[in-house]
Amino acid sequence: MNATNKSAGASIDIRKASKRYGKFVALRDLDLSIRPGEFMTLLGPSGSGKTTTLNLIAGFTEVSSGSLEIGGKSVLGLPSHKRNIGVVFQHYALFPHMSVGRNVAYPLTLRGISGAEREGKVRHALDMVKMADFAHRYPNELSGGQQQRVALARALVFDPPLLLMDEPLGALDKKLREWLQLEIKRIHRELGTTFVYVTHDQEEALVLSDRIAVFNGGQVEQIGTGRELYDNPATLFVGRFIGESTVLRGKADIVGGDTVVSIAGTKIVASGKISGQAAPVILLRPERAVLHRPGTGVVDGENRLSGIVEEAIYVGSGSKYDIRLKDGTTAVVRSPLGAPEFAIGDTAEIVFRPGDVTLLADDASADITLT
Amino acid sequence: MQLSSRIFLGLFCLLVAILLLAPTLVVIPMSFNSNKSLAFPPAGFSWQWYDNFFTNPEWLLSLRNSFMIATVVAILATTLGTLAAFGVTRAAARTGGLLRAILITPMVVPGVVLAIGIYAVYLDTGLVGTMAGFVFAHTMLAIPFVLIAVSASLEVFDRRLETAAASLGAGKLTVFRTVTLPLILPGVLSGALFAFITSFDEIIVALFITSPYLKTLPVQIYSSITRDADPTVAAVGTLLFLATSFIIVAGLLIGMRRGRT
């Protein structure tokens, strides 16, 4: 647990991995590479294959086909207790019949470490999660957040090159979750261990990760930093899953290299065009548009879409509006402080430049799987 | 609740308690009878039947036999029953249900029917009147009790703890020794106690497979009372009553202390 030792993390290489349970395909031909020391988050809705991937890495299940290497060595067929990987579970999984100290000492005892060396490592690990005063308590005397911190200490005390976390903060309330996110981030920075983190919460993924792998239907849709995924989503699913967005659909034509989509009778221009046969849709981020009163502030070349304000929420740093368009779509727009303000029932025009939207191939499944 | 109905309920409970306890409690005064007859109320007071029990080799030998058989049965049945409980709770729901039904049959089948079957088999195999014969038969009768007690513990046991232990570096046997067994131990111990008692006071099968040279305590009590109404049986009954009460009270006290921490 040397703070300067940044080469401690293990790499992970998954190639063409599939996992089938009878007829159900949990993973299909998954490719995923994780760099040493990276904080990688596997993000996706339930049933998208992210937890299955984590279980494969941990050795709790085996691939049906494909390869899996950790630190450059194949681990296929290697049982989980020989993989030397730390795992933190959503349900803490502390041993109720052991004190906090004995829980954390458990993996050390199994590795033949005893006496003063074990005591020192246990104390160091509990210090790291700020639980050193609780060594003699039992898990049922601790709160959820305290239990999860102990579980984190137990998973790290034996210096594993890789730490897996399966929705570790899922059972905690929002305040505690946000605080522990920062703690986890700090510990990752200190240790240089590779962290693989599973969550369905995209905000959590953005806070924590170096890179995020977005899962959908047993496959990775896109891997990238939070910024890459937000600004340049590769698929409609990724665009909708990361952050807020409005999807505009209509009959599309290519005019001089740009795409023109007709939405409720209004022609909307988006820069560029998509390849392939699928119909193009426009993805608009809430802060990329501004609201104007009808006919005011007209600038040539900007798109204007008229609608009725359905919801207006003051969020401190500005206002958030839901605008109902004529074709029934609800658009989301965030206005900064100082921008014109609107009340529910007002008519407003959503204004944005052709270059500030993303063109994506339409995919009906992106809507359904978002629930 | 009204006072009158509360009094009525209290009296009713007392009546049921008396009904349940009376046959047992009657034995205690009878054991101090100074006449050689099993009479209630007893005449006079004497320790002679206790004296007889502790000095008569026939009684002591049967007590020793029962202890030895019950101890071996408790060990065997607890081991086999615990393993069976693992199989039953961790098999697919349907297979598990079927297996459980089969494993519990010794509890459901009338004792006499079982006894006839066991006797018939033992005649052929020469197990009548042997220690091994008693141990086999009683183990079979005791396994269902262990199975029920241990699978109750296993059903509330969180299997994810085993996954966690494996991820920390524990192989299957180590997981069992350090995590699973300590957490299901209350079930295993109560199963062992049930197994011991099942064997210790078993009479039906014992009457069939006993021999003049190998009697268990219940067989000795039965033959003694049918032969000459010896009040020694009342003394034995009183001692057994005290011993079991002690075990149960101790168990409750330990349970209470555990519940507090």
From TrEMBL, chain A:
Matches recorded under Gene3D superfamilies: P-loop containing nucleotide triphosphate hydrolases
Span of the signal peptide: none
Keyword terms: ATP-binding, Nucleotide-binding, Transport
Gene Ontology MF terms in the entry: ATP binding
Keyword ATP-binding on entry: yes
Xref: PROSITE patterns: ABC_TRANSPORTER_1, ABC_TRANSPORTER_2
Residues of the ABC transporter domain: 12-242
PANTHER family: SPERMIDINE/PUTRESCINE IMPORT ATP-BINDING PROTEIN POTA, SPERMIDINE_PUTRESCINE IMPORT ATP-BINDING PROTEIN POTA
Record-stated family: Belongs to the ABC transporter superfamily.
Protein name stated in the entry: ABC transporter ATP-binding protein
Species name: Mycoplana rhizolycopersici
